[in-house]
Amino acid sequence: xxxxxxxxxxxxxxxxxxxxxxxxxxxxxxxxxxxxxxxxxxxxxxxxxxxxxxxxxxxxxxxxxxxxxxxxxxxxxxxxxxxxxxxxxxxxxxxxxxxxxxxxxxxxxxxxxxxxxxxxxxxxxxxxxxxxxxxxxxxxxxxxxxxxxxxxxxxxxxxxxxxxxxxxxxxxxxxxxxxxxxxxxxxxxxxxxxxxxxxxxxxxxxxxxxxxxxxxxxxxxxxxxxxxxxxxxxxxxxxxxxxxxxxxxxxxxxxxxxxxxxxxxxxxxxxxxxxxxxxxxxxxxxxxxxxxxxxxxxxxxxxxxxxxxxxxxxxxxxxxxxxxxxxxxxxxxxxxxxxxxxxxxxxxxxxxxxxxxxxxxxxxxxxxxxxxxxxxxxxxxxxxxxxxxxxxx
Length: 393
What we know:
four-stranded mixed sheet, Aspartate Aminotransferase, domain 1, 14 strands, 2 domains, Aspartate Aminotransferase, domain 2
């Protein structure tokens, strides 16, 4: 058997491209935050993770430009070897202070944070316990470890306790949850989870890729709930609110020091570029100095949830600027995406197996920089398209 046979037999994407309903890898001519240009057409962007709108902030842009002028375009080596700058360490110090932990460690991508952190901490005989809606990077990090993975139903405290109660007392346990779930827009119930983890001597890690910058005055979901000191590890990315690319893990100094010397995705990857480091650092400064960006993102999310519910859309349990439109069928989801795209709104279709069968949805998200006029225009399009295709009455 030829190992490439699966490639030759994979025809679904080409069929969708030929049929004009392929929704992925769309190359934008321009993307200025709240608006994007595709083949000459202007779209209101409601499918971005740029929650604070800082990718176009003059200070962030200038910080990246200045870093390129000073350091060049790359460090051409791993953090472990020649690829650490004082700029990296400055960002780590300021991040740890921002999130309220002793130490932080930055990686080149958010995916690498989870791959390296989980696989270095969870060893043979240990257990890693995941929410069933955890991000793919968490699942892959668990797969890379030598430990055993257990899953519990989404945000189900009783099921979490059931899983933990059945594990050996003398084995290491790491519970990992998203702070803000990227599809449903709902929060992990951290205050209720923490006592359960402590009862069974399990450590708790929160992936706050989507919550950081938005909740807790920008400091994330743990800060939002006032439980930062009771969460063992906090992870986040730079590719959302930080307007860059990269990520970090924060926690007690001894734990971060161990990860720094054990995480293969850190040791064997080139370090985050100077420009991306400087952009993330300047975005952090703006978050601290201008908390109104986080407040505005939440305000826009509140407005859109209220109006979308009024129109009759099924939007689940969202409490954030991430608001799903639940459709429950693959082709109907693709058709809804294409209808909105042609009407001038960019959203993300999420179909199986990215979500379980029956939970297909349009993922919509809103930024601090969306104007009320833009949001009202989006709502008018949602209503018109929703009625045309039978999503609302």
